[in-house]
């Protein structure tokens, strides 16, 4: 596995030449700092977890995975003349994304890191479908749960299409 230590070693020359950039080991991993021109104050700081630490932090890993999956969905939606939206209502019902086509066709999407979270994803997707249909909207064209690992593509008993990220396509 490529560790941050190996990455730092590979870029050590660049990091020593560029006085506006510094990577500092911290108790949370590494912090990437960019400094102002006079090197008096840092402009930005970004915490970079080690790969090992990231594997132990499923919440952060899940957020990063969700961001990756939503980016892919946005690219596919735009390429097909659709939009990508977020749904969160006043009753705190939420789904990670809604892919919508002009004219009303829509697909709610939940993004989960593993298949162990499919029940939660299905509950949210079915609840959004019920709420939207009760409000007079057409049912969704599909209900989709994008997962990172733990299952092959399939359709659950509740009608949720489970799609691993590596088979997601327009």
How would you describe this protein?
With 170 residues, this protein is of the alpha+beta class. Helix content is 35%, strand content 33%. The radius of gyration is 21 Å and the shape is elongated.
Topology:
Blueprint: H1 4-17, E1 21-26, E2 29-35, E3 42-48, H2 51-56, H3 58-79, E4 83-88, E5 94-100, E6 106-114, H4 118-134, E7 143-149, E8 154-155, E9 160-164
Parallel strand pairs: 6-7, 7-9
Antiparallel strand pairs: 1-2, 2-3, 4-5, 5-6, 8-9
- Secondary structure class reads alpha+beta
**Hey, roughly how much beta strand do the residues contain?**
25-35%
* Euclidean distance between termini CA atoms: 31 Å
Secondary structure: number of strands: 9
Order of helices and strands: HEEEHHEEEHEEE
Let me know the largest β-sheet: 6 strands, mixed
> What count of helical segments does DSSP give?
4
Percent range of helical residues: 25-40%
> Mind telling me the C-alpha Rg?
21 Å
Keywords:
single chain, 170 residues, alpha+beta, three-stranded antiparallel β-sheet, 4 helices, 9 strands, elongated
């Amino acid at each position: 596995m490529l560790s941050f230590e190996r990455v730092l070693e590979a870029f050590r020359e660049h990091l020593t030449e560029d006085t506006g950039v510094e990577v500092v080991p911290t108790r949370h991993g590494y912090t990437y700092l960019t400094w102002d021109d006079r090197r008096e104050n840092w402009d930005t700081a970004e915490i970079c977890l080690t790969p090992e630490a990231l594997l132990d932090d499923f919440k952060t890993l899940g957020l990063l995975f969700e961001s990756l999956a939503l980016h892919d969905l946005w690219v596919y939606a735009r390429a097909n003349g659709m939009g990508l939206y977020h749904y969160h209502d006043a009753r705190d019902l939420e789904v990670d994304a809604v892919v919508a086509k002009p004219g009303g066709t829509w697909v709610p999407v939940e993004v989960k890191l593993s298949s162990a979270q499919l029940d939660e994803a299905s509950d949210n997707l079915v609840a959004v479908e019920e709420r939207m249909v009760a409000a007079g909207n057409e049912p969704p064209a599909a209900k989709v749960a994008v997962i990172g690992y733990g299952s092959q593509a399939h359709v659950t008993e509740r009608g949720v299409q489970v799609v691993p990220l590596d088979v997601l396509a327009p």
